[in-house]
Amino acid sequence: MYVNLYPNQALKRTKRVLLWGGAFMLLGGVVALLSEMVWQEQPRWAWVMATCLLIASAAWAMAVGAGKLHLKDAYFSMTPERISYRLNLYSPERVIYWSSIDSIQASIHTLVFELKDSKQVVMRLGNIQCNQTANHVSVSIQLAAVQQQVEVNQVKPKAQQVN
């Protein structure tokens, strides 16, 4: 199962916000830089460095918004061997193998994977833009956990089976 978490319309909206936000930040950065370099008698170098950082981040936002820099896909993928996902365009990819999952704690906003090595991996469903897609992902994981014999919300796998 593969679900694209950023449909084209949402991605276009995000890029438009980045483009216009970057343009606004770039304009403010240029005005601040001019004010420090031209209109001040003695330039404050810390402020000059800060405005240069603002201009650089604005240029990055505008490049992403204009499509010159490409973001990674936000997705959810589940196979009988593993779960992999990237919930944001800028977050790292996570891969969890079913064989390493001890139990799953599911709530409305998060899925907490308790791993066999006593670590936890938290999937924040609020990072998925569409609530219906987040619900679909959560239910799909819980149903697959039953099939994979993984405890869900402290219910043992044997108690979940239907005769």
From TrEMBL:
Highest taxon of the lineage: Bacteria
Protein name: PH domain-containing protein
Keyword terms: Membrane, Transmembrane, Transmembrane helix
Species this chain originates from: Pontibacter aquaedesilientis
Positions of transmembrane segments: 17-39, 45-66
UniProt KW Membrane keyword: yes
